[in-house]
């Protein structure tokens, strides 16, 4: 099995309405999103074309979240909830008989991130 990974960035604002601290106030981040697909190579020697992966993520995630107020999309937009929302948007789009969505990693800051990974035992 091979892992194919692509990185993206997007800018968005949010506030954590169920949180007590400075993050309950409106603020923004430059998020870094890392999407990893796992699978086997096709006859062209690729698991998934980087361009195809880029287009799927752009259409289903970035076009919605970039320069948005995330609270309009996700009720409590913690990094964990945003990562789960991204997973739900991509899991079926990145699933064929050869590959599947393996991991979503979302950086809220350069040193703070959430990782959501498929359980391979299921």
Automatic annotation (TrEMBL):
Pfam families in alphabetical order: PTPS
Q: So which residues are the signal peptide here?
A: none
Please give the catalytic activity noted in the UniProt record: 7,8-dihydroneopterin 3'-triphosphate + H2O = 6-carboxy-5,6,7,8-tetrahydropterin + triphosphate + acetaldehyde + 2 H(+)
Q: In which pathway does it act?
A: Purine metabolism; 7-cyano-7-deazaguanine biosynthesis
Q: The organism sits in which domain of life? A: Bacteria
Q: Which InterPro entries match?
A: 6-PTP_synth/QueD, 6-PTP_synth/QueD_sf
Q: What top-tier enzyme class does this entry carry? A: lyase
Q: How is the cofactor bound?
A: Binds 1 zinc ion per subunit.
What Enzyme Commission number does this protein have?
4.-.-.-
Q: Which cofactor does it need?
A: Zn(2+)
- Which key words tag this protein in UniProt? Lyase, Metal-binding, Queuosine biosynthesis, Zinc
Kindly give the PANTHER family that the UniProt entry links to this protein.
6-PYRUVOYL TETRAHYDROBIOPTERIN SYNTHASE, PYRUVOYL TETRAHYDROBIOPTERIN SYNTHASE
Tell me its family: Belongs to the PTPS family. QueD subfamily.
For this entry, the protein name equals 6-carboxy-5,6,7,8-tetrahydropterin synthase
> What organism does this protein naturally occur in?
Thermosipho affectus
Q: What is the lineage of its organism?
A: Bacteria, Thermotogati, Thermotogota, Thermotogae, Thermotogales
């Amino acid at each position: 099995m091979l892992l194919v990974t692509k990185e993206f960035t997007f800018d968005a604002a949010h506030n954590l309405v169920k949180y007590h601290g400075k993050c309950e106030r409106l603020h923004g981040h430059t998020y870094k999103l890392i999407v990893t697909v796992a699978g086997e190579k096709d006859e062209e020697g690729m698991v998934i074309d980087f361009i195809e992966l880029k287009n799927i993520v752009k259409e289903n995630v970035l076009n919605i979240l970039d320069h948005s107020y995330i609270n309009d999309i996700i009720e409590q937009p913690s990094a964990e909830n945003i990562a789960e929302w991204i997973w739900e948007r991509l899991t079926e789009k990145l699933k064929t008989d050869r590959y599947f969505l393996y991991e979503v990693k979302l950086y809220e800051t350069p040193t703070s991130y959430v990782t959501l990974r498929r359980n391979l035992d299921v």
